TrEMBL record:
Gene: Mettl2_1
Name under which the protein is recorded: METL2 protein
Family, similarity comment: Belongs to the methyltransferase superfamily. METL family.
Keywords: Methyltransferase, S-adenosyl-L-methionine, Transferase, tRNA processing
A molecular function (GO) term: tRNA (cytidine-3-)-methyltransferase activity
Gene3D superfamilies for the chain: Vaccinia Virus protein VP39 (3.40.50.150)
InterPro entries: Methyltransf_12, METTL2/6/8-like, SAM-dependent_MTases_sf
GO biological process: methylation; tRNA processing
Species this protein is from: Rhadina sibilatrix
Span of domain Methyltransferase type: 185-289
Disordered: region residues: 58-81
Length: 388
């Protein structure tokens, strides 16, 4: 329904605050126009704002970017070092790990929860602003929350949120959030920079439940120890999405939304399809997977020096974290093979500007929505399966 779509879109906008773009040169002033609608029509005014939306690349710009990526990929990381990065696969940079020790992030969370805005430090996302100019239906991308139908309202009345499920005859084993009518999973939650703004919405939306997981146990512990964490509508847990044998703390086929934002790019390309396949199984028919990650020839890719390339379009940073740069076709193919259908699959090209140094940076991201069909071609029985 439209209300469901709007709710999903709003969650996606909140989660996009995890955007890893460099923001130290961003202004803290609230943007004068909604994000997504700032179009550069006069090149002489390029340094008047920090970011320009929907940039079109010339054929020459595209070719130059391709050449730079080819050049910085000529020297590959040695195989023994590649094995080391795969074994150690650090999800969070060292500076984040240091923040875990000093608990600086905890104070930032408190600031986020006490503030009425959902803005990131770079000021890009604030409540009421549109990340995309329009939603799929042409409406605003930042609108009031989800409205439940009568059956869901009755379910909430019969099973109030906040109580763990009790064992009942013929009922599946209890799990966190089993009484909820609407369930969301954020993969790669980190220290909770998206968790708490989302929870701020969910705590006023009865019957919703948020699962969040991360590879780093320190990050999950920080989320769970935060004063705004409440097990009545959130369950944070440690999970390695690359480990197919590792069960999730809830059954397959129960999730309405999965947020996969700047996570898949950290995983070895050989493992990506398996990760997507497993996540697709967690969705209920009609459930939506929201994806955003680095796009091919983003400034971050072109800045790598020789010797940092692991494989084609896959690099290692100085802190040991890895990053892959996707094409739109790759993303479509990956999720299609997992049995999901495209709702949206866009290349988001923006021009980021360092106004002080007069430097221009072409940023490229992929933003997508993929849905699990109501009639699954991979598993026709899925439509008749009863979900808790």
């Amino acid at each position: 329904s439209l209300n469901t779509t709007n709710f999903i879109t709003r969650l996606f906008a909140l989660c996009l605050r995890k955007n890893k773009m460099q923001h130290r040169h961003q202004s803290n002033r609230r943007p004068a126009v909604p994000l997504g609608s700032r179009i550069l029509t006069d090149p002489s005014k390029v340094f008047e704002h920090n970011m320009w939306d929907h940039m079109q690349w010339s054929q020459e710009e595209e070719e130059n970017a391709r050449k730079k990526a080819t050049e910085n990929s000529l020297v590959k990381v040695q195989s023994e070092d590649q094995d080391k990065y795969e074994r150690e696969a650090k999800i969070l940079p060292d500076k984040w790990r240091q923040e875990f020790k000093t608990e600086k992030i905890s104070s930032e969370h408190t600031k986020i929860i006490n503030d009425n805005s959902f803005s990131h430090k770079n000021g890009m996302f604030e409540e009421g602003e549109k990340y995309w100019k329009k939603s799929d239906e042409g409406g605003s991308a930042a609108v009031p929350g989800y409205v439940y139908n009568k059956n869901q309202v009755k379910a909430l009345t019969d099973n109030p949120q906040g109580k763990n499920c009790e064992e009942e005859p013929g009922k599946v084993e209890s799990f966190p959030g089993c009484d909820a009518a609407y369930r969301i999973l954020e993969v790669g939650c980190g220290a909770g920079n998206s968790v708490f703004p989302i929870l701020k919405v969910l705590c006023n939306t009865p019957g919703t439940f948020l699962y969040c997981c991360d590879f780093a146990s320190g990050a999950v512990e920080l989320v769970k120890s935060h004063s705004s964490y409440n097990s009545a509508w959130c369950s944070a847990f440690v999970h390695d999405v690359c480990d197919d044998a590792l069960p999730y703390p809830f059954p397959d086929g129960i999730l309405d939304v999965i947020l996969l934002v700047f996570v898949l790019s950290t995983i070895h390309p050989d493992r990506m399809q398996g990760v997507v396949n497993r996540l697709a199984k967690l969705l209920k028919p009609g459930g939506m997977l929201l994806f955003r990650d680095y796009g091919r020839y983003d400034t971050a890719q072109l800045r790598f020096k020789k010797g940092h390339c692991l494989s084609e379009n896959f690099y290692v940073r100085g802190d040991g974290t890895r990053v892959y740069f996707f094409s739109k076709d790759e993303v479509w193919n990956m999720f299609n093979l997992a049995g999901l259908t495209e709702v949206q699959n866009l290349v988001d090209r923006r021009l980021q500007v360092n106004r002080k140094k007069k430097v221009k940076m072409q940023r490229v991201w992929i933003q997508s929505k993929f849905q699990k069909p109501l009639l699954s071609l991979h598993n026709p029985e899925e439509t008749t399966k009863r979900h808790p």
